[in-house]
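A reminder before we start the practical. When you read a complex entry, don't treat the lines as separate problems. The point of joint prediction is that each chain is placed relative to the others, so the output describes one connected object in space. Small molecules and nucleic acid strands, if listed, are placed in the same frame. In the example below there are two entries. Take a minute to note the order of the lines before looking further.
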Amino acid sequence: EADIYQTPRYLVIGTGKKITLECSQTMGHDKMYWYQQDPGMELHLIHYSYGVNSTEKGDLSSESTVSRIRTEHFPLTLESARPSHTSQYLCASRDSGRSDTQYFGPGTRLTVL
Amino acid sequence: GNSVTQMEGPVTLSEEAFLTINCTYTATGYPSLFWYVQYPGEGLQLLLKATKADDKGSNKGFEATYRKETTSFHLEKGSVQVSDSAVYFCALDSGAGSYQLTFGKGTKLSVIP
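Here is the predicted structure of the whole assembly.
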């Protein structure tokens, strides 16, 4: 059973607001990821971290930022939300083995008006 | 680079029908292969995986065999149920220290009574 949590599950917010999407895992995984999922269901990697104080941008350019101060916590922040940020955001984590499973959180559905 | 191609959906089947979702891949080396499933309103969860050629992954009546000669990992189920309605993602982990999954675009399956 995966122990990875995301809050909030749903968020509706106005343009220009600062938001933080929370992601936490209790499995002690060193590797964590943020994906953006478009309406067509395709997944796009936007950020990843391979350990504390390590963050990298993914394949899809994003105006969001992330931090990794603690192993279990990987929040994503948008300084000024825009309607183009409306999407489903999925957090994931995995251990370091070659074929280890990547576990996903339930996602946050963000709507920016 | 690595890539995963899976059949486009949506796929609509009647209950108890046979399911095949095709997946082919391009990768260097010897990747591990995965099928993930995403039920409505949820994150992705691992359905099955195979880590080397000729391995068969199976779970909940679903099966997929790692075919290196055809670079394929097709998902099959002999008799689908309404509860199998979901989006299915094929993915690969190329290993070699990348720790990132390459996903297909997803195939939406709807099973009607």
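Discuss with your neighbour: The mean pLDDT of chain A is 92. What might explain this?
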